[in-house]
Amino acid sequence: MKDIELTPDLFEPVPASELDAEAIARPSMSYGQQAWRRFRRDRLAFGGAIVLCVIALAAIFGPMLSPYTYSQQDWTQGNLLPSMTHICGTDKFGRDIFTRILYGARISLSIGIVAALISTIIGILYGGIAGSVGGKTDMIMMRIVDILLSLPSLLYTILIMMFLGPTMQSILIAVCFTAWIGTARVVRSQVLSLKDREYVLAAKLCGANGRQILLRHLIPNAIGPTIVSTAFIVPSAIFSEAFLSFLGIGIAVPMASWGTLANEAIPMMREYPYQIVFPVIAISLTMFALNFIGDGMRDALDPHLRK
């Protein structure tokens, strides 16, 4: 074979317009970045997050900046209408309602967040073990869940509150008694669908035991639906605390929660309706914000739902 002669005609410079033809026009985004972008595009969810942040900041710093305290009484200032001095008016004891609402936000949000964290931890462990072990263990654990769901929630809640007293600890126990069940079911279903995947088999072949597979592979890959379930526990816990306090078996006076404020305003509702309107508005805004956030997180973490 004759050698091919390399002539200058065989090589041509690349045109300037084609230099960036194979460049990545858009940088790659992680799962979290994509979820955050979808969440920001949801106006209701993003607006709910802003409202919740404002409420949380007001609950943290509001009582510090207020010239009044939640328990400060002034009998000469009882049942005052809303004014520049008292933005939301005063109750029958002359206590500033706005300050009590801000202080009540601390209690209500604290109960909701702590109850959600405790319920999520219990639900992840319970559902993860049931789904990964399977067999009779799974059947027994799920039958226990069915028994707990069959119990009237108001009955055992009242019994717990009467036995332990009206404290934040007793409310957390009452709320968390069955709040973890929804998370456990979500985690169990996710684990059942994931435990036969190839990466789980590869982990078994590498010598990983059941606990390592559950904690390192199954639960991290089920975190999306778990976060959504947790987001819906928070408003449920806040509403449960407000309901218990409204019935008079929740937070003890003079501590103020939104349910306690609504309960105290019932006798004065006809003469001074503003005393119950402002706590109800605070509860409603928080419920709407948290539910919008939960819906937005569900759509952001699982974009297939939009289809």
Describe the structure.
The protein has 307 residues and is mostly helical. It has one domain (41-60, 93-302): MetI-like (MetI-like fold), CATH 1.10.3720.10. Helix content is 67%, strand content 0%. It is built from 11 helices and no strands. The chain has helices at residues 31-41, 43-65, 97-133, 135-150, 153-164, 168-194, 198-205, 210-221, 223-247, 258-265, 274-301. Helix 1 packs across helix 11 (274-301) and helix 7 (198-205) packs antiparallel against helix 8 (210-221). The chain is flat. The model has no long low-confidence stretch (mean pLDDT 81).
What's the arrangement of secondary structure elements?
Elements (H helix, E strand, L loop, with lengths): L30 H11 L1 H23 L31 H37 L1 H16 L2 H12 L3 H27 L3 H8 L4 H12 L1 H25 L10 H8 L8 H28 L6
Helix pairs in contact: 1-11, 2-3, 2-11, 3-4, 3-6, 3-8, 3-9, 3-11, 5-6, 6-8, 6-9, 7-8, 9-10, 9-11, 10-11
What's the quick description here?
It contains eleven helices and no strands. With 307 residues, it is mainly α. The model has no long low-confidence stretch (mean pLDDT 81).
Terminal Cα span? 62 Å
Which topology does CATH recognise? Answer: MetI-like fold
Number of helical regions: 11
The arrangement of helices and strands along the chain is: HHHHHHHHHHH
How is the main sheet built? none
CATH superfamily: MetI-like
Helix-strand makeup class: mainly alpha
Question: Key terms for this structure?
Answer:
307 residues, mainly alpha, MetI-like fold, flat
